[in-house]
Amino acid sequence: xxxxxxxDKLLITELVxxxxxxxxxxxxxxxxxxxxxRKHYWNEKEATVRRPxxxxxxxxxxxxxxxxxxxxxxxxxFLEFEEFGSQIKLTVFDLGAKWxxxxxxxxxxxxxxxxxxxxxxxxxSIPVSYEKAKAMNTPKENGRxxxxxxxxxxxxxxxxxEMLKLVHIVAPEDVRxxxxxxxxxxxxxxxxxxxxxxxxxxxxxxxxxxxxxxxLLFVGPPGTGKxxxxxxxxxxxxxxxxxxxxxxxADQYLGETAKNIDRVFExxxxxxxxxxxxxxxxxxxxxxxxxxxxxxKRAVNTLLKAIDEISLVEHGVLLxxxxxxxxxxxxxxxxxFDEIVEFNLPDKDMRKKILDIVLRDIEGKFDTIEISExxxxxxxxxxxxxxxxxxxxxxITERTVLNQQDLLQGVVEFNRRIPLKSKxxxxxxxxxxxxx
Length: 436
Ligand SMILES: Nc1ncnc2c1ncn2[C@@H]1O[C@H](COP(=O)(O)OP(=O)(O)OP(=O)(O)O)[C@@H](O)[C@H]1O
Ligand SMILES: [Mg+2]
What we know:
Layout lengths: L1 H23 L10 H7 L15 H8 L4 H6 L4 E4 L4 E4 L2 H10 L1 H8 L2 H7 L9 H7 L7 H12 L4 H7 E4 L15 H15 L1 H7 L6 E5 L6 H12 L3 E5 H6 L2 H17 L3 E6 L3 H7 L4 H16 L2 H4 L1 E7 L7 H4 L4 E4 L5 H12 L3 E3 L2 H6 L6 H17 L4 E3 H18 L15
Parallel strand pairs: 4-7, 4-8, 5-6, 6-7, 9-10
Antiparallel strand pairs: 1-2, 3-5
Helix pairs in contact: 1-5, 7-8, 10-15, 15-17, 20-22, 22-23
The site of magnesium ion (MG) has 4 residues, from helix 13.
């Protein structure tokens, strides 16, 4: 009980001192506030945390889940509780700072709070560093509030509605795909490493005038992880992802299409640093090949021009295109990318690894080598479907613990469904046989 009280006192003091320092110093920015505090005080309209921050009982409950704040605050000599508005006020900053500096448990908190670290790194031998705290603190671009703010601002501009319908924007903190759940080839890993470094050393690249980096084309059959890697990259790099499907552009009012493309690129520049993921890139080639829509062709030219003009180094936008049909892309489309990343159907070893990942949280004993031998030509997505079949079969007999037989049956079920699938309007979609 006593321990919890000390903990509560620390948290109250942390917030009150953080608010005080943030309010005082214009050297500190919104990215210096710890993630939780920043989220709580975020002002959507202004896309920042407005000064001054006031600290109330409700704020402490919302941020740290504290109860009984009033009584705890009253035990601290440098705080005053104001009944009206339940506000907690700092009376003497120095006293509060001294109190915090005396608590060894506080060091850890200060060291992960850039606002406090900026003050305490010059204070009597407390081993904290502003640099380190800042580097560890999640930047605002990671949060959905940041994106909501930008989208709100853009929504209010004339003509932006159609464009916003074309894109799907996800904040890194909401990305569900994780790189460690994806089985990558060595060269895919290499590409990711390169891009991560390029983003980290963007200023350097700008200085030396190296611009030819940051436009990737992901090429490979359906279900091989193109979309998943793009999203996982957003999470890894901590930058939002803006997703566009090119085929959807054709459904829009054609007259507006070229303008919409420009707006999508404009939006990406404003969200920077971010990933702009253009899916179904082969649509460019299809559109060029038709004689029907002059407007569509114009739109495609606009797109190619926009790709030419955007740059990771200059604008902070990492462009990733994805296509299933490399054969139909013409030279004009290819040459706009700096790097082609190949996604092939997984080999036996990769299939085993993917199966192990998909089965990770499923109870049962499995021989994934056997399954990987029976699934030549299957994509990662197909393997997930096999496991899905196995799980559902198990549930029919009320079983949540599965066995090898269920997986083998999953393969059979999956194979049985392939002929059905190929009768769809999209005959080749998801049909592994095509790539064998
Ligand atoms: N290499 C892989 N490792 C782990 N999981 C994979 C891999 N490839 C695909 N998957 C799984 O398959 C599913 C589909 O993958 P994803 O949507 O990324 O494929 P895609 O290449 O974008 O397909 P499409 O071309 O149809 O858009 C995802 O759930 C993903 O987790
Ligand atoms: Mg995809």
